[in-house]
TrEMBL record:
Highest taxon above the source species: Bacteria
Protein's pathway: Bacterial outer membrane biogenesis; lipopolysaccharide biosynthesis; Carbohydrate biosynthesis; 3-deoxy-D-manno-octulosonate biosynthesis; 3-deoxy-D-manno-octulosonate from D-ribulose 5-phosphate: step 2/3
Molecular function GO labels: 3-deoxy-8-phosphooctulonate synthase activity; hydrolase activity, acting on ester bonds
Chief subcellular location: cytoplasm
The species this protein was found in: Candidatus Gallipaludibacter merdavium
GO cellular component terms given for this protein: cytoplasm
Name the UniProt record assigns to this protein: 2-dehydro-3-deoxyphosphooctonate aldolase
Gene that this sequence comes from: kdsA
DAHP synthetase I/KDSA domain: residues covered: 8-276
């Protein structure tokens, strides 16, 4: 089994680790202009919102480790931080950027949500301690010269400064001259340290100094290495992305083309969901030896939300002020199939209206609990479990929004429609269904339970 890592909070909206869906740290290698940085950040945010990927924008104000002294380094710290601050405030995304010297850490920490330690500097004690002292999350790139298990000493330095907001980043290991190789077992080794591991997919295909006075690389290999790392089970992907990488200031040969990113990330999400379902620990007292979340559950009670699950979340008002909701008939039949298997069924909703009551009566369900907010859904489920003499590990629940989180995190089998909010999709082990709310997602969930019911 892949080790469980800490969950690190990047800001109020974005977390990484704990075997949640991967977080993306991405953007152009260097801030070449404010407009270009904004264009890339905006497009990446659109893609990540569409795919429900937690997103951190990355770009560097200074590239201090260029192959040639004449190579462009960036727009400088003052201008660069101003650009990052503007992107952060305008697009509402966290940002990450490199620090190269101790004195940079405090001013950079005033803007950046994550401070990044370049690979060549990962053993610089003073730089690590200065970054740690800011209290910010620190993404530490493993040097090309280090073994994965040697990162324990770097972690110890961070811990000695009282900062455990640590990300460990793999970016390839020197393999002869002008070449790197990625040891996938090293990702497993680093995760054993208990902190989230980020895979730097684009720097891993570099050929350092391979073009004589500049670094070479092969961006065509990035998707393949990304898939391999996701198959191992990682917490984040780092990728440098440019609208015209062949004319980028730095690292052009290994940066991804912006136009290719949605396709690559769509594939990455599919693989990540598959692997996380296989590797996440089982809640309750179930055995972790089996591989499918469905196969290792014996469900005795199914509970469902209404708005956004049994309906599409829309509310239809008449001219008299009355409102209506549209339900999916297939969901109702799915619930009946469950009842035939001896599984009790019910609804727990924040709403309190006659529409929910009439739907409950129409379907002849066992339980209806309305008006449950601020943790009330979990408490209502516990009361039903007590009445049925079962545990929460024997309960399945499907929800779509943040008011469902507490219950989703506690039940034995959690599920959500494909258009659920991203916070719900990050619940460990949750089954992300193919159908949207109101379009048969509850029927899809009931059929999965019936198919795998023990």
């Amino acid at each position: 089994m892949i080790a469980q890592t800490k969950i690190i909070r990047i800001n109020s909206d974005v977390t990484i680790g704990g075997n949640q869906p991967f977080t993306l740290l991405a953007g152009p290698c260097a801030i070449e202009s404010e407009q270009m940085a904004f264009d890339v950040a905006g497009r990446l945010k659109e893609i990540c919102d569409k795919l429900s990927i937690p997103f951190v924008f990355k770009s560097s104000f200074d590239k201090a480790n260029r192959t040639s002294a004449s190579a462009p380094r960036g727009i400088g710290m003052e201008k660069g931080l101003a650009v990052l601050q503007n992107i952060k405030q305008t697009l509402h995304v966290p940002v990450v950027t490199d620090v190269h010297e101790t004195w940079q850490c405090n001013p950079v920490a005033e803007v950046a949500d994550i401070l990044q330690i370049p690979a060549f500097l990962c053993r610089q004690t003073d730089l690590l301690l200065a970054a740690a002292a800011t209290g910010k999350v620190v993404n530490i790139k493993k040097g090309q010269f280090l073994a994965p298990w040697d990162m324990k000493n770097i972690v110890a330095k961070m811990q000695s400064a009282g900062n455990e907001n640590i990300l460990l980043c793999e970016r390839g290991t020197s393999f002869g001259y002008n070449n790197l190789v990625v040891d996938m077992s090293g990702l497993v080794e680093m995760r054993q340290l208990g902190y989230p591991v980020v895979f730097d997919a684009t720097h891993s295909v570099q050929k350092p100094g391979g073009n004589g006075s500049s670094t070479g690389g092969n961006r065509e290999m990035v998707p393949y290495l990304m898939r391999a790392a996701l198959a191992v089970g990682i917490d984040g992907i780092f990728a440098e992305i440019h609208p015209d990488p062949d004319h980028a200031w730095s690292d052009g040969p290994n940066q991804l083309r912006l136009e290719d990113v949605e396709r690559i990330l769509t594939e990455a999400c599919e693989l990540d969901r598959l692997i996380k379902k296989l590797e996440l620990p089982v809640k309750g007292n179930m055995s972790a030896s089996t591989t499918s979340p469905m196969e290792r559950k014996r469900i005795k009670l199914l509970l469902s939300d209404i708005d956004g699950v049994m309906t599409d979340g829309g509310m239809y008002y008449t001219s008299r002020g009355d409102f209506m909701k549209k339900f999916n008939a297939h969901d109702g039949m799915g619930l009946q199939l469950l009842r035939q298997k001896g599984v009790k069924t019910g609804i727990i909703t924040s709403e309190d209206n006659d529409i929910a009551r009439r739907r409950f009566e129409k379907l002849h369900l066992d339980y209806l609990v309305q008006g449950q907010r601020d943790g009330g859904k979990l408490e209502a489920a516990k009361q039903i479990c007590e009445k049925e003499h079962i545990s929460l590990s024997e309960v399945a629940y499907i929800g779509d929004d943040v008011n469902c989180l507490q219950l989703l995190q506690q039940v034995g089998l959690a599920a959500c429609p494909s258009d659920a909010v991203w916070q719900v999709k990050q619940v460990p082990g949750i089954v992300q269904l193919k159908q949207k709310g109101g379009q048969g997602c509850l029927r899809e969930f009931t059929e999965l339970i019936v198919k795998n019911h023990i």
